[in-house]
């Protein structure tokens, strides 16, 4: 469904992403992992059209979308969410979700109806008339997901939807993502909450210092010495092995 090939992006002298490639199969949940500053969000901004890549290409459902603006990419069926959720504070939850629905439903009643359905599917039925400013972090994260879904997109790029949530909220959102996938959606997700990645993603890619250093099933990746070193520093893999033998 998504084929990312050899993306690179520099900011001045800083190589944020170098030669990164990845694939997402339709119907799958794929993780994008890596320590802080590894280049994950920069990859998302290039894939979703928010930043122009210096080099490389992005194909979505076989079509070359490299360089297209975000609204055109969204109209084709792919959308990203944001790590820091900024709803329209003066609008209700339902109106915020409707902002996404307006992409394909230009009539207010229709957009609000789609928003109500999506909100209910995401367990937000009781909150629809509340101002978005009254939502907790967990509520805002759910709203971000709902707004993205309301656009009708089939491929969702999620940027840390679990960040700042407590374990019970994480369990809830994991269930929601699984349910949405089963309804016919595909996910590429940046996530630091490994418990969530382990239970959701069939496969994951690991970025470190802008380069893709590994990919495979998450359970194998956490044992990969290059991944351990990326997170815990040089020599960490050997130290952990010694401690395990001691
Ligand atoms: N617009 C920008 N201008 C300059 N530098 C940038 C810009 N965006 C990102 N960077 C730098 O590029 C590098 C990669 O950042 P990016 O946000 O993609 O990493 P990340 O893996 O998403 O990190 P985190 O997990 O902390 O969100 C960092 O060094 C960051 O400071």
TrEMBL record:
Gene Ontology MF annotations: ATP binding
Residues that span the membrane, as ranges: none
Keywords, alphabetical: ATP-binding, Nucleotide-binding, Transport
Keyword presence, Nucleotide-binding: yes
Record keyword Zinc present: no
Domain ABC transporter: 2-234
PANTHER family: AMINO ACID ABC TRANSPORTER ATP-BINDING PROTEIN, CONSERVED COMPONENT OF ABC TRANSPORTER FOR NATURAL AMINO ACIDS-RELATED
Name of protein: ABC transporter ATP-binding protein
